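Intended use. Records like the one below are meant for learning the mapping from a protein sequence to its folded structure. Do not use them to infer anything beyond what is encoded.
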Amino acid sequence: MTSPDVLGQDVLQALADAARAVPGVDDAAAVARKGVRAAEPVRAVPRPEPGPGSAEAPVAAADDVADMVAADEAALPAADLYGGDIDIPDGAPTTLQEGLRLAAELAPDKGTVYITAGHDDVLKTYPELLDEAQHVLGGFRAAGLRPGDAALFVFDDNRGYLTAFWACVLGGFVPTPVAVATTYTSANETNRKLRGAWHLLGRPVLVTDAATEGALSGVRELWDEPDVRILTVEELAGHPADQDWFPATADSPVLNLLTSGSTGVPKCVQHTNASVVARSMAVAQHCGLTGEDISLIWMPFDHVTVAYYNVRDVFLRCLHVNAKIDHFLADPLLWLDWADRYRATNTWAPNFAFALVNERADEIRERSWDLSCLREISNAGEPVIASTSHRFLELLGPHGLPADAMSPCWGMSETCSGVTYSRQTLDDRTAGTVAIDPASLTGTIRHLDPGDPDAVVLSRVGRPIPGVRLRVVDDSGTVLPEGRMGELRITGRTVMAGYFGNEEANREAYDDNGWFRTGDMAFVRDGEVVIAGRLKDQIIVRGINYMAHELESVVERVDGVRVTFSAAAGVREPGAATDQLVVFFVPVSWDTGALARTTEEVRAVLVRESGIAPDLIVPVTEAEFPKTASGKIQRAALVADFRAGRFADRVTGAAAEEPADDTWFFGRQWVELAGNAGTTAGENGASGVRLVLAEDDDLDRLDIDGAVVAVRRGDVFAAQSPVRYRVPAADRAALRRLLAAVTAQHGEISSVVHALPLSLEGEPAERLTAATAELTALIAALADGEFGHPQVLVLTSGAMYARPGDRVDLGVCALPGLVRTAISEAAPLPVRQLDLPADPGTWTRAVHAELADRDRTGLVAARQGRRLEPKLVPLTEDTEDTAGAAASPAGQPVTPGGLYLVTGGLGGIAHDIAAYLVAGFGIRLLLVGRSPAEGEKAARLTELSRLGQVVYEQLDVADAAALHTAVASAEDRWGRPLDGVLHLAAADPTGQWADLEQHTLVNETAKTYAEQYHAKVSGTLAIAQILETRPKASLVLFGSVNGEFGGHSFGAYAAANSFLTGFAEHWHHERRRQVHTLAWSMWTGVGMNRGQSSTAAEHRGFRTIDPDTGLRLFLDAAALPGPYTVIGLDLRNPAMVEELVPQQLRVSEVLLAFVADGADQEALRAAVAASAADCPVPVRVAEVSRIPRDAYGAVDAAQLLLDSAADRPARRFTPPQTELESALALIWSDALARPEIGRDESFFELGGNSLRATRLLALTDQKLGVRVTTQELYERPTVEGMAAVIEQHKAG
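Structure written out for the chain above:
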């Protein structure tokens, strides 16, 4: 499978041309069958396998590497870097004890500020920290701890953690932090790690805070170890201060850090005073830090954070501001609030944190901070993505953030955190990065232009700090020259003393010369290190390390997984913010249901026991699961097959799941049109005059060149000159007179620019009525083709919300529904709507671009010099609001016991939803409708009243005063404010099915528009009035997919529903209100659709929704973020697939369809073989009876794909059996452009749609004198069925 953009139109054209050249082939077309992307293969980045170490590590001479590098590389410097000596001032502390003592003496006003949620921030000065630590030291000694003893730290409270940490420093005990587990009543990865460390370290005490103690005590029962000792820092602090410190030396152990081990027991990285002090001194020297700096940290202390920042800040004697990661994750922009409030000069976070901030782009633009104080932001802990860094700098530059504040950094627990630093800057986006050819990663690195599509951009992590030496070596341990990929090794004063109690790990970790093997693949460029990946079987996700074998052991516990046949791997796609966790497994059963259950259980058990959700889960066969002869899993081979797309049809996961029948929800996303037109209007090669309907001011702003006839509004038709007219713009007869006059005077009309919507005045409903009348009059005047088929360009401004900052004009936001209806009804008249940006100074260029692209139809928004079109993207409950504005609050979309207004009366869907909410949520319900509660409706009201508290008011939803009175009365009645409104009121359009032709835009009456706009437009505006004084009330608007796609013969209904979309965008983005428009496909068996055929809707790609499903979907949809959701598209329909954003699509095959009369198929296949060889996906050749084409003459790809679907039953032709059936078959053949029609073939399966239905019924009436309704056709859509209907008409 491949991306749609990889498969160019030239490939398809070459295939079709080759087929047409074969004798006997009458017609041919090649189209791409697209589906929704399963898993996009990522580019393979080959990584050399590690080799054995060497006793010597000499720098390789040119002769030694001549077979690996080109001759001109032999003179390159060796990839052996030294950061220089550490400059240690006289009197500098040599232990952490001395560091704290000096901080307390020399900086008594400095210390740590603890940021607390919902409370005042707390400053603990260094003297206070020392005093409290001495009290806790007394407690430790009273509890029997001796110098050298380890203490396992399990803290939720950072203040308690740091106090206990420094108490251990004073007493010579060794703090060993572990994260707080989600539970201690059942085993999971975190509490297993704690248990492993407890045994490794000799069953030490567990130290925690009072709030965590209760849950942590569960380990006694969980481990069956009743003697586990747990101490709280609060209890320890109650002891008298002990000022008799342990006589620490540089070699005294001072900190243990746990990393994953190969046996399930964690490895314990042990640091001494020497390594921690050296790192603190070196980084201060390297980065130019002083006591005047202010540090800001929110990363958890079970990480290496305590050495990375807190200890360093004690040595600097500077202010340290400390928050919790939970605060940041709840609101990433708090990070910026803190930095501004405390004037932080430096901070640190992994790459994922910057990505989270970047997602709040719109809010960042509206907020205000002064970040000029932030000189250095360390980006470390996981791969540094340059594009994420640059975006962060770009967004925060307007808030004063220095352009070069971003500092990529590399380090690990074994090196006492970061030991290399680089710089990335917004002023030079190549600084701190390299662009390389990924295929060169096995040898000499080939550098590419950053704009090269094959380039992978990696971040440089810089040069080593003082006291640290780095080198890149090959698998024999020989130092490589710069520009060659190898393993990164390190030595120096910051490196750990070793793994505690694990000599085997120490032997493997160090080479014979004492250099530590980092397990990272790297190369050097211009004296700076570039990290390219991991050598070891570690997976780094969002800054946290996981061992593959540990995750695999968890997966294997799932019943449906074959034992020893699971693999976990970290895969990072280019540009991704973090690694993806991909889990492969061989299932016990490939039964669809069993496989689905196993996949879900794999996901659940990893979340429950390891605290990580896999990004992708891939079931494979035993034959596809590679192992060595000794049984070792070959993860690299699995990843290579994954990247090659071998498993793409089986991948499941949050980002790559194939939408199935449960994909109900879709959101709108604006994407850039490919091949943006850049020519002027005069360069498009079109002949003829341009007719521009615009007021004078707008005509000047548009500045359309070429032969132009200008038309302004007027009360009567008037020709002021051969090139200037006035016309009543809503008068169809006057417009036809205008077209006739212009054609007679100037000849062919090439384009009609309808710019009158730009100058409408009045209230939104008034402007919409006027805009509707003028646009439909113009379409009606052009529809019959008497004046040719000129390009029709409808200009608006504010009709569409396409980019953050747009403002929606409620007077024209309904026009997209009319335009899309016109496209289907008026073909081959090419109609397009161009929504112009707010700045009139950009209009000329935007309009010229559209006039240069003559054949496109649909909607285009011009923004910032780009042409955008609306597409759809599948939504899930995890989807975030990509529009960049305030999303609806997460959680329950209905407040239990709340007061809700529901419009739509006692009929159909409104009644069903009202009953659901009253019974299920106990809401107080104010139900309003235009009809009195009589007869059946009275019975329904009684039924509702039995369920709960319900009041019905008969009123017009467009009457704001009546609404206000009813709502105020309900609020008084129930003693609570209105919680929300569900607006379901609508005019019933189903009567239009009886005469579709009468309701096309050409024939539709003003009365129908008024009826449709009354509830949807005027009613919504009236509801908005009552909600102005109720800012916390939510609003859910019930709309239709017709608003998104238009509706043949339902233009008024489509426009009314388009208004709901525009209103929701306006209220959400501009007013910051909680609002959601739900654009439904067809509900069946209820309301206005009761008894209606669903065949036409299903053929268009709209799924039917039964009432039970609809009620379930309502709550799920209302809880999604963003203001607009389309519900119920069928992604099995090729037409619907084409509506999705390109990034969601894949091409699974190319269909080469041909119509032939005696052609040799083998000759045809041979003729297209050469072109097929260039195609990146399989080419399927199929003979068809015809190539369907649309009204514009283009191949109807969606219908061709439906006709030729591989799983479509072969067509069985049954000839007509009666004279009437034979006559009807001829009429059908004419209407559907098919040579023959069988008596039992479905109108829709033959390519029928509402436009062709109109033509078919007109021909039937004309030739047989019988008027069959659209509904009758849809209910009995075959020649046989229509014949029976006609016989009934004749009999009746």
